[in-house]
Amino acid sequence: MDSTLLEIDGSLGEGGGQILRTSLALSLLTGRPFRLYNIRAGRSKPGLQPQHLTSVRAAATIGHAKLRGASRGSSDLTFEPGEVTAGNYRFDIGTAGATGLVLQTLYLPLALRGGGPSHLTLIGGTHVSTSPCFHFLDTTWRHYLKLVHLRLSMEMIRPGFYPRGGGQVEVNIQTSDRLVGLHARERGPIHLSGFSAVVKVPAHVVKRQARRARVRLEQQGLHAEISEQIWHGDSGTVLAIVVHTTPAPVLCFGLGALHKPAERVADEAIDQVLAYVRAAPAAVDAHSADQLVLPLALAEGTSEFTVAEVTPHLMTNIAVIRRFLDREIVCDGEEGKPGVVRVS
Length: 344
Fold this sequence. Notes:
Layout: E1 6-9, H1 17-30, E2 34-37, H2 50-63, E3 66-68, E4 76-80, E5 88-92, H3 99-113, E6 118-124, H4 134-147, E7 152-158, E8 167-173, E9 183-184, E10 191-199, H5 203-219, E11 224-230, E12 236-244, E13 250-255, H6 262-278, H7 286-297, E14 303-307, H8 312-324, E15 329-332, E16 339-343
Parallel strand pairs: 1-2, 5-6, 9-14, 10-11
Antiparallel strand pairs: 2-4, 3-4, 6-8, 7-8, 10-12, 12-13, 14-16, 15-16
Helix pairs in contact: 1-2, 1-3, 1-8, 2-3, 4-7, 5-6, 7-8
């Protein structure tokens, strides 16, 4: 085990919080301490924000780590990991920061190094912009984890939307002795389903979201059964469409916001669906590729998958993983275009 402090530039690639999350997870998995500087240098609000601080402190809690620089707005963090311990944990972001991003920091260390099953209670945002929502994680991400032999179950007790958050997610993580690689070249046949959901907004909104989605899909010769749901919690809306295919179903979604028409919420989700359906039939959607490459870098044997679009997130995550692990990870393809990822 290498105990040399690893220096990582947080402005690498797309310069976002993914660099922090991957570094925290791999530090706990490898026992390697790191210093991350220029944290989130590529963002409008650089440095550690509440959801990033929660990830840092949660990682330190499950891994008995020592911290320096763990404060709001900090652009320089040192993390010295200890032993990962399974258990029942509760982490409250305190804002609408994404609970899913905290989960993606913790699940691999707990599954592979915890020594037993773990239960997480996560409080914060479940459906917020620029991060995977609860239903994407439960539908798409969790399916990919199952394929590589990671067992995880999730339940949304209460939704949490921007700006108040307050959502609650319960997660059970089982131990895994070994991960297996993935080989996927093309997606399978597709069919669609979905839901329109609202919380504390006029009832006509749920119907307008669903109606707009159905009309736009029918104009393209597509059909989806879309349920209309009323949730309990703080105010917010979501329209989600699941593209059922192999190797994993892909969930596309749009979120409501103040003064944002219901039709525009539906349009955001449908635009994603149409882009995916019309693209070259790659096996893995653009949003899953960067999340999938980390467990595959820890899996036995080789992996190879096609991706609908090579993103800056994918390339940045590959670069960070290479700093911690002696695995060859290659992505053939230009950013913004289809590609092939190989792990050997």
